[in-house]
């Protein structure tokens, strides 16, 4: 007996572990195969290159150039009209030019800061999409579990009513029940078959959605243990603090506000004085008929100050001031939305947990009641066919309600974790 219990315990343990492995496997598959996520990964790499581009503006610019010119002069005459000899002149020029910006009103500095902010924004956009995909794939898996249970419960219900109809036909022959009782059983069987068709349709939709999100085939066997416990905050106040610190949407809105400040500084810098230094060295061969070759070196310092460009520069500054104000308002709106959505997610999590406890109690009571009524009905006691049908209907509803409550409670945990910015692959590995 002890050996049997030990085997059952080990199998139950591995079944539960397998369920968690299933979740992680399908989430990782969805993350790997999702085109939207892969596109955002490419966007992050492209954004990181913008940092290198901005840094390059601080470094000298080196240009090497060369040219070769062949000139032929003919039909030449002097002042008296006498004909002169034709001439050929080949000129070859090689030069190297080095330009270095000395001062640009901190335009390059702000451009580099903006590029770094854009990189941070791309990282959080990537994290946000990752969370969306983890939530969608997890929800698809637990929807699949729920609708599989729903179909199984309805299948069991049809089987029970089929057996009841056969039993009632025999009891009618014996005179233990009347035609009304048999009609009630047959009517309930027809209703059970209709519900089974609905359950099969819902399961088919769940399977289609699961394959679309994970881009994998439906597993042959699905672990139906849908209970899961994620590491969540212990209070609404803790959830709000975590959301304020980690919510990708809120951080992206904040970064957008900072980027608009850098853009405004860049436009202001365009009105500042500019200073640059240029060094050029060139070699010229066959420069003229009298000079065969010449080497030249030059150093040029340039200072410029754009004063007005038809009002374009001032209007551009105004434009970015408005844009800065716009992003600041959007950041404030994001703060309000984050607080509201986190509160809703917390409330949904709490209510889902309460509903799950209530449906567990409901299911337990329905099972006890159905078992007693079925025994009394089978023994020919005072229980009627209608009472038995009502008892089985209540049991089916209790089972489905409990399975749905389990699904909703699990999804509410994923939703809350996503809202506070903690829904990652690593958070699933700790299960």
Give a description of the structure.
The protein has 431 residues and is α+β, with helices and mostly antiparallel strands. It has one domain (22-62, 106-274, 309-429): Outer membrane efflux proteins (OEP) (Up-down Bundle). It has 9 helices and 4 strands, in the order ααββααααββααα. It has helices at residues 2-33, 35-56, 107-174, 179-214, 236-246, 248-269, 312-378, 385-419, 425-429; strands spanning 61-73, 87-103, 274-285, 293-304. The chain has a 4-stranded antiparallel beta sheet, with no helix packed on it. Helix 6 (248-269) runs antiparallel to helix 7. The longest helix has 68 residues, at 107-174. It is elongated and about 145 Å long. The model is unreliable at 1-21 (pLDDT under 50).
């Amino acid at each position: 007996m002890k050996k049997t219990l030990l085997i059952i315990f080990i199998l139950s343990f591995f079944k539960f572990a397998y369920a968690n492995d299933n979740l992680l496997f399908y989430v990782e598959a969805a993350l790997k195969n999702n085109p939207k996520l892969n596109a955002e990964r490419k966007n992050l790499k492209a954004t990181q290159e913008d940092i290198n581009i901005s840094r390059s503006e601080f470094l000298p610019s080196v240009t090497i150039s060369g040219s070769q010119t062949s000139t032929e002069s003919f039909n030449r005459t002097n002042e008296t009209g006498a004909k002169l000899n034709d001439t050929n002149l080949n000129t070859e020029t090689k030069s190297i030019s080095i330009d270095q910006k000395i001062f640009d009103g901190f335009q390059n500095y702000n451009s580099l800061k903006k590029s770094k902010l854009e990189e941070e924004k791309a990282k959080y956009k990537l994290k946000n999409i990752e969370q969306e995909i983890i939530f969608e794939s997890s929800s698809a898996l637990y929807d699949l579990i729920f609708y599989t249970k729903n179909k199984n419960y309805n299948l069991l219900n049809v089987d029970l009513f089929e057996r009841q109809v056969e039993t009632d036909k025999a009891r009618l022959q014996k005179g233990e029940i009347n035609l009304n009782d048999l009609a009630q059983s047959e009517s309930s069987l027809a209703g059970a078959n209709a519900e089974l068709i609905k359950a099969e349709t819902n399961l088919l939709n769940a399977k289609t959605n699961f394959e679309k999100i994970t881009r994998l085939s439906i597993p042959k066997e699905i672990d139906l243990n849908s209970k899961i416990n994620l590491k969540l905050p212990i209070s609404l106040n803790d959830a709000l603090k975590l959301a304020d610190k980690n919510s990708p949407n809120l951080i992206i809105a904040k970064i957008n506000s900072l980027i608009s400040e850098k853009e405004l500084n860049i436009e202001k810098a365009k009105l500042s004085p500019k200073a640059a230094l240029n060094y050029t060295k060139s070699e010229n061969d066959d420069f003229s008929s009298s000079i065969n070759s010449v080497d030249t070196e030059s150093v040029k310092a340039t200072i410029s100050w754009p004063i007005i460009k038809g009002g374009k520069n001032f209007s551009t500054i105004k434009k970015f001031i408005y844009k800065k104000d716009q992003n600041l308002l959007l950041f404030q709106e994001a703060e309000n939305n984050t607080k509201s959505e986190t509160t809703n997610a917390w409330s949904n999590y709490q209510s889902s947990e309460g509903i799950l406890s209530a449906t567990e109690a409901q299911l337990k009571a329905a099972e006890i009641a159905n078992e007693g009524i079925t025994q009394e009905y089978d023994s020919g006691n005072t229980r009627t066919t209608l009472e038995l049908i009502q008892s089985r209907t209540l049991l089916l509803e209790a089972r489905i309600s409990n399975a749905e409550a389990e699904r909703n409670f699990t999804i509410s945990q994923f939703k809350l974790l996503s809202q506070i910015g903690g829904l990652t692959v690593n958070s699933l590995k700790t299960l």
